[in-house]
Amino acid sequence: MIVTQAISFLALGTLSFIFAMIFSKPLLSLLKRYQLGKQIRSEKDTPVFAGLHKKKEGTPTMGGIIIWFTILIIAGVMYLGDILFGGVFSQLNFINRAETYLPLAALCIAAFIGLVDDIMGVFHMGPRGGGLSMKGKLLLYVLVATVGALWFYFRLDWNVIHVPLWRDVLIGVWYIPLFIFVLTATAFSTNETDGLDGLAAGVLVFPFIALGIVSFLNYKYDLAMFIAVLLGALVAFLWNNVYPAKFFMGDTGAMSLGIVLGVIAMLTNTALLLPFFASILVVESLSVIIQVLSKKIRGKKVFLSTPIHHHFEALGLPETNVTMKFWIISGITTSLGLIIFFLDKYK
Hints:
The chain has helices at 2-33, 47-53, 65-84, 88-92, 101-122, 134-155, 175-193, 199-217, 221-241, 251-267, 274-277, 279-297, 308-314, 319-345, and strands at residues 160-162, 168-170. The protein is mainly alpha-helical.
């Protein structure tokens, strides 16, 4: 059984990668044809960022479509194949009410909201002509997270959080605000991390691999297969997003991936391991929060620019250097998180 599931995991991941690689070519042509390129904020608002990235203006955005479109196509094909033919499709069908309904729903909703935001940005709509404001995005993150929290609490009766190396803790109705915080934080952090070629996609590979392992070892095989498909599409996107990027992820990718990361962490009851699995996302968000608070309270900046990857760029480090070092840090901390998970599971 375990061997069969592992083969299904690898098969779906490979299929997803191949499909996403093929799909990326017509998508790139479409984005270029309609000039759906990234708009760089004005030098007045973000002088350091604008100076470092002005040359990237016009690079096609919304490349995150590759990821969620691939997931939906493969999920649909396997589901319909299971109904019509059975056999191998039954083995590869990962649509499961208990494990994958909510991640798929969250993916679709967040991807649509992000897509609208990206389109607004391309056509200079919204506050300052750059799509939704950060406050607007946060509000939408909270709304999506609230729907998920209410579903988990009232429909699935989730009210327990697992403390690694200790035990499950009953938190009752406090599960709702915790769920909202986790999903909002992962969505916001992913959005903030998506600032250099290959950074967000590369960093996200590690926590999704970790959550895939966690799901597999906890016998959540359908969730593990969903993650395998996501990883295949994510790696294919990364292939085209490393420096120099052919296209950017956009909010349609960053928001959907961030929300799904939070949902899977809650489904596997590993939310308290996210600071290890997604350490770079945590650091990126903290840098923004510290910068904002410092400017309001002290009237001074702590960093040359935020999120913190722009600070290192401003110090003179090459973009590829920053990206690779952040990948390495993410790999190390994710490994530490998995060690804690194994110690906890097999203690």
